From TrEMBL:
Source species of the chain: Rhizobium lusitanum
PROSITE patterns: HTH_CROC1 (PS50943)
GO molecular function: DNA binding
Residues annotated as domain HTH cro/C1-type: 9-64
Full protein name: Helix-turn-helix domain-containing protein
One Pfam family, short name: Peptidase_S24
Taxonomic lineage from the root: Bacteria, Pseudomonadati, Pseudomonadota, Alphaproteobacteria, Hyphomicrobiales
UniProt entry tagged with the keyword Membrane: no
Keywords, sorted A to Z: DNA-binding, Transcription, Transcription regulation
Segments of this protein annotated with the region Disordered: 83-105
Record-linked Gene3D superfamilies: lambda repressor-like DNA-binding domains, Umud Fragment, subunit A
């Protein structure tokens, strides 16, 4: 037997991890009596309200109204790689709640089994580009992240054994600008291991200064400095090398692989 409109609404709310109608009403910004009347089947709701509920619960208005389509996009919600807003971090790189800011694949599931996501962010070999940032409902809150623009099938054996990367923590980013030429050319892609977000060796990293778009740069630690300093090096010899305190940088991840155009 097909569920009623209210039963479908309740199923979507529960699948999105809202434990009660009260929590759902608070998140939606509607009165509890109005929401309960919809969920209990006392009042039907129109397409406009269905769209509002669908966006919050990660489903479709069509499912809520007619039962057609997927029950919940809480299964669809993992389509982003979460990011952080540099304006919300303190000088130590933490949010107000004490959580460390970082990119994460926690809320992403591949459409192609074993694929690695390419995110809508371009690493600047100069100035980077942050693409569309979207918010999705997860549990009783929302997460912000970068849209997935492509999926790459890269053998896990290569990632583990050759690139020395964690397959479950890697993402793909496009390179723009000329500051890392001739090593990295505009339009090239790089494999970034998000789990390697500390500087353990002198190599190439995806970095952020907390203010501008993310960049791809070669980092070299300056010995015998306290606090630790690091040189930010562009492979393009025409460009200047900078030295900053390591603590001022956010290391997004280590560059573990390079997908170059011919």
């Amino acid at each position: 037997m097909q569920k009623s409109m209210g039963e479908r609404l309740r199923a979507a709310r529960e699948a999105a991890n809202y434990p009660s109608a009260t929590k759902a009403a608070e998140a939606l910004g509607v009165s509890l009596s109005t929401y309960r009347a919809h969920e209990n089947g006392q009042n039907e709701f129109n397409a406009e309200i269905a769209n509002r509920y669908a966006k919050k619960f990660g489903t479709t208005a069509g499912y809520l109204l007619t039962g057609e389509g997927a029950r919940t996009a809480a299964r669809l919600a993992p389509t982003i790689v979460t990011s952080f807003d540099p304006d919300e971090q303190d000088q130590d790189g933490f949010a107000e709640n004490g959580e460390e800011h970082s990119y994460s694949r926690e809320h992403w599931t591949p459409q192609i089994a074993g694929a690695t996501p390419e995110v809508d962010v371009k690493l600047g070999a100069g100035s980077g580009i942050v693409g569309e940032v979207i918010n999705l409902p997860v549990g009783s809150g929302n997460v912000a992240g970068h849209k997935i623009v492509a999926e790459w099938l890269i053998p896990m054996g290569y990632l583990r054994n050759e690139a020395k990367a964690s397959p479950s923590h890697t993402i793909i980013m496009e390179v723009v600008g000329d500051s890392m030429q001739p090593t990295y050319m505009p339009g090239d892609r790089v494999i970034v291991d998000l789990s390697q977000n500390q500087m353990t060796t002198d190599t190439v990293y995806a970095i952020s200064d907390g203010y501008s778009e993310p960049q791809i740069k070669r980092l070299q630690r300056v010995p015998f400095t306290q606090p630790s300093q690091v040189k930010i090096i562009s492979d393009n010899p025409a460009l200047e090398t900078f030295t900053v305190e390591l603590g001022r940088l956010t290391i997004i991840g280590r560059i573990c692989g390079h997908i170059a155009r011919k």
